[in-house]
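Subject: protein-glutamate methylesterase

B.,
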Amino acid sequence: MTTVCSTGPDANVVDTVVVGGSAGGFNALRALLSELPADFPAAMVVCLHQPVQAHLRFAESLASHSRMPIETAEDGRAIDPGKVYIAGPDRHLMIGADHLHLRRGAHENNFRPAIDPLFRSAAVYRGPRAVGVILSGLMDDGAAGARALSRTGGQIVVQSPETTEFPDMPQATLDAVPSARDVALGDLAATLVDLVGASCADQGKVPWDIGMELKITSLEGSDMESERKLGTLSPFNCPHCNGVLWEIEDGPLTRFRCHTGHAYSIQALNDAQEEALDAGLFNALRAHRGRAELVRKIARSTRNKTSRKTLEARAERIREDTELLERIITRRSGAPRA
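Prediction pasted inline below.
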């Protein structure tokens, strides 16, 4: 998937809009779609972070607010102008030369589907023909993908943080792509109408690193020898698979990726480490409680008084450690995350 975009009859026209959002993004997308005309001359491909249950009826719930047809994306589906394709649950949605890809690659920024793979695919296969739009959301998924799309000539538009329910995601994209347009929600539709259908430059050669990261997400035969060229080994392990993480310096962004494909912004890595540490502490608490009870049970069945006292003392030490773990968990629960 590392070839440049096609040179067909529409190769010099802006004909693709990719959209990403998270918390508050559904309401923003609904408002945007309600303002776009039925003859909008571009395909729109959308990835919003949603629970699985919400994904199942996502397209249906948006249909009444859109003049354009909306459908849940299917692997191999042709990309037609004037239609909206929505990412379904548990698969990354990406653009190919003239069709959609669904891949069960590793989570990126703790999400699948994630926004970065969609935007990265648009960078490879659309470049100047694409507009990337980042809507309301927490954290910073989409910032790296928007930077990749910008590097291949695509235009980036973000919902103005002042008009979002959650400004983190648009602000992260503005920080990553200084040339991005900051547009109020009420003006997004008009901005897109102005941009799509316009002539654009030919796409140049796709940077190697963008193509390689797309191959990793697409499960297309990348290898550790190639992947390590993306960055340098870090002292951190992947919270998902415990593999070593490569640290990638991407302009103003610091990112991480392991050889199985899990990818993180520095904020997403912090969040994933917090969750992994929390799970580890509760696992340790469960193990200590079970261990203390088992040692007590052995002590009760032991006839030798000396052995029984030794076992009871060991059970008491485990109980003390259990109380210490409980205090650590309680203390952490009241502390704000970094």
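The chain has a mean pLDDT of 92.

T.
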